[in-house]
Amino acid sequence: MSPERVRTLAHHYKCGDPALVQALSDMAADRKRGWWEEYREILPAALLNLAEVEHHATRLRSAVTVHIPGLLQTTEHARELFRQVVPEFPPPDIEHRVSFRIKRQAVLYRDSAIPYHVVIHEAALRMQFGGPVTARAQLQHLLDMSEREHITIRVLPFTAGGFPGSGQSIFYSHGPIPQLDTVHLDQSHGPVFLDAEAQLDMYRVLLDRLDSRALAPDKSRDVIHHLIRDL
C-alpha cells in the first residue's frame, strides 16, 4: 500500500491523529520486501508478523520465565528447543524455524540497532537444553550480548519472591509512535498479539514491576558467571 493510499483511507475514515497517519505513511513508504517474506509459504503467518513488528520497533522489552528470549538464543540452543516441541517438528521444519529465529536477531546487530531491555528469571538460566556444553555457550552468549551498549539483561533470582503476571513470558515492542505499540505473548497454540491501550498499559505496569525486582545489570552478570562455573 502506498503512502498516498494510507492518507486517502485516513481521510475517508476521519482519522484525526496526524502522528498516526504520518507513522503509517512512513511505514508504507518503506516498500522493500522484508526478509521474512521468504518464509511466507513455510512458517505460520504469526511468526512473520512478529518479525515485521520487531523490524519496525524503536525499542523492545521482554520478561521470560523458562526460555531464553529468541532474540538472545544461540543456534544450538534454539535447535534443541524446537527438537523438544510436542508434537514433533520434522527435521526440515526445525531448521527453517532455527534460521528464522536467528535472522530475527538482526535487529540487535544492524547499524541502527534498537535498545533491548530483558528480565530473565533464574529458572530460564538453569535450564540445560542440549546439555552442559550447549548451556554454557548460551550463558556465555548472554554475557557477551550484555556488554553491548543497547542491550540490558537483568536476572530475576529465585529469592525475588515471585513473578508478577503468573509467570507468562511477555514481549513488548515500542512502535514508531505509542499507538503502534504491540505486546506479544507466547502461548502453547502460538503467539498472541495485543494492541488495545488498556492491555498495553497493564503490561507496561507489569514489566515495570518485574524490573523493580530484578538484579542490577552488573549483579545479573555475576549470577550468569556463577552458573557458567557450575556447569
UniProtKB/TrEMBL annotation:
One Pfam family here: DUF5753
DUF5753 domain sequence ranges: 49-226
Protein name, entry field: Helix-turn-helix domain-containing protein
